[in-house]
Amino acid sequence: MDYLTIIQILDSMLRLSAPLIFACLAGLFSERSGIFDIGLEGKMLASAFFSAAMAAATGSVWLGLMAGLTASMILAAIHGVASITFQGNQLISGVAINFLASGMTALIGQNWFRLGGRTPSLSGDSRFLPIDFPFTESIGKIPIVGPIYSDLLSGHTILVYIALITVPVTWWLLFRTRFGLRLRAVGENPEAVDTGGVSVSFLRYRAVLICGLLCGLGGAYLATGMAAGFIRDMTAGKGFIALAALIFAKWRPGYALYACLLFGLLEAIAIRYQNITIEGFGTIPVQFMQALPYILTIVILAGLVGKAIPPKAGGEPYIKER
Amino acid sequence: MMTSTEQHDRAAPMIELRGITKSFGSVQANKNIHLKVSKGSIHGIVGENGAGKSTLMSILYGFYKSDSGEIYINGELTNITDSHKAIEAGIGMVHQHFKLVENFTVLENVILGTENNFLITPALNNARVLLSKLASAYSLEVNPDALIEDLSVGHQQRVEILKALYRQADILILDEPTGVLTPAEANHLFDILKNLSNEGKTIILITHKLREIMAVTDTVSVMRRGEMTTTLQTSETNPQELAELMVGRSVLLRVEKEATEVGAKSLEVENLTVTDKRGVTTLKSISFHVRKGEILGIAGVAGNGQTELLEALGGITPAAGRMKINGEEIPLNGVGSDARSKRENGVSHVPEDRQKLGLILDFFAWENIAFGYHHKDEFNMNRFLMHNQKIRKIARSEMVKFDIRPPSPGTLAKNFSGGNQQKIVLARELEQNPKVLIVGQPTRGVDIGAIEFIHQKIIDLRNMGAAILLVSVELDEIFSLSDRVAVLFDGKIIGERITEKTNESELGLLMAGIEDDSETDSLVTRKATE
Question: What is the ipTM of this complex?
Fold first, then answer.
């Protein structure tokens, strides 16, 4: 394996991690506020569809992005109303959103485009295109450092860079601002926030909407950045992998980045090497490599990787006693 | 010229409640409450559980909204719709169950809700400075960078007080503040409260401990069944009168207890050792015995091994050591050490946490009365079917006998008040005529009327010749029930006394972990003579 191959694998790792990073941070905001959200998948899917549909119809990827964000945030608001205002079961609400998104996108897609649930292929301005950094030609020639700049970091769509920037921004919001302090508190002990004179519901709604926003970015990236159009159920469990990454990351933004990069790396390796042959052991079939992120998800969700303590008030609707 | 009394009357009270009424469904928690508290005073509110004290204070703090009535703060009509308004009006509250974020630092908890800025660093710095000032002014020392979960309960309470002071509260409400404190910590708290009132802060203290009312308050109000019945000057009343006002009839604060012939050793425990899941030894090889017709009280500050002792003897957690009932050994771990075997050997267990271990709250009273003994013939028709009709009948008669209200077996356990829930557990266990009764915190959260009843039932069982192990953190209870007292400290029995030959200060020293050897005794006497 030469150096350039490694750079190429890392390059596709970044590309494949971006939607996971968005979804994982989305889950982080929601769960840190005490609202469990297994509907990340559904929100991404809805955003993927509506962004692709809008982009296809108008030819503008930015209008597409707006449509995707709107769809995702509407679903987030539904989850918020169900679990905050009506104090319903957050898991059931999340499952409902996943089903709703999966069924709705396929149905509307078929009705609008008659392509078996797909949207038309996107090209040109109706997609997010790679951004090339300046001077890639010349800097790329510098050994070792050059390829990192021109092949690894350069040449992604704007959303990949936004995903990477969202990580430190999330950290800063959580640990340096009033909003973050209250958000972390409301997920641990909402009574402390309530008796402190701060509205629990308003805080949680804001968190859930941020979650919708970030899922929307992730979904739009899938359909208009990574791929060129929407395919039925194209999220393929990324929302759940992001949840696993969130647990793996112990609900911390920095670790969340590493966890998502790990999942992205596994995926990148599976794409790069169809069959991996190991001397004296035999061949690892491609199916196993493709299944690896999902296997790792199960392992993490089964609690086999260390002890992860979720926000204490997570999953519980806030009801003033008696 | 005005006389001083006239002047006093003309000054508006710091807090005035007029006609506060609040209902939860069909239950009227507060009925037309009027109350005046003058500035700089410490005002006590006493009442039985469910009398409406906490509800009233939650209304004052904006946690609940009253159905009708007005609140005047410093003479001004104040509409307290939420806690934010209460904080603005200068009211701070220390809740019975602390409202702290456990994995936050002290500073983060203190500023939460009052950050005053989008970024939290300035508030954190401010709070650090202010906290050190308050710490020295009121001896409220606490490490500002410690996590709440690492602090003792006493220190967590200090954080709650600091939170209120940081918000510049002029009025401080404390709801049952000493329930979780050692006697020394409680005294320290009272010193702090007196200091604060000298500084002009107005303090409302809610408690059911009359001793505390007498020790620290200037005025006291009594609540009964949602009504504010009386307000008195503390100096002009006494505990007996307050207790009578609380219950509405005169009560015996000490249960009459005649001496009994103590018999042979009924419960013997040798070298009982409990190690928890984390590998920490919580009970360190303790030994004791209880004779027939005797009550052994286990005193101590909560968390010194009481729970482990109860659960080991009740067959809930495995332990090392030996346990004998009437000379016959019962295993403490492995086969035959489970709760059912203990029961079959005549050991009844009234657990300290009745809601978790004593009852299934979502089950009916009659079901709860059969639990643990449901395999017995009296509850079953044959090998497969339970005799539900019969269980209901038994349950009804037991409920009448134990004065459980309402005496309806078809009511869910969770719909009974704390005292009646406890009576359901007691009815179940006592009706089995146990040889040995292990009972933990029998009257925690129970009102005075029910306390008296429960105490009488325990005494009756003792008079019938049972051996009783009473674990309680209430010294009053230990004194009124037990024949002998052993004090648990740090998982060991640090001292043992005959109840009649000791006093609260002596037990208090033992509870604080001060070993009873002659040295300390002489020290105390020397100090007393000086």
Answer: 0.88
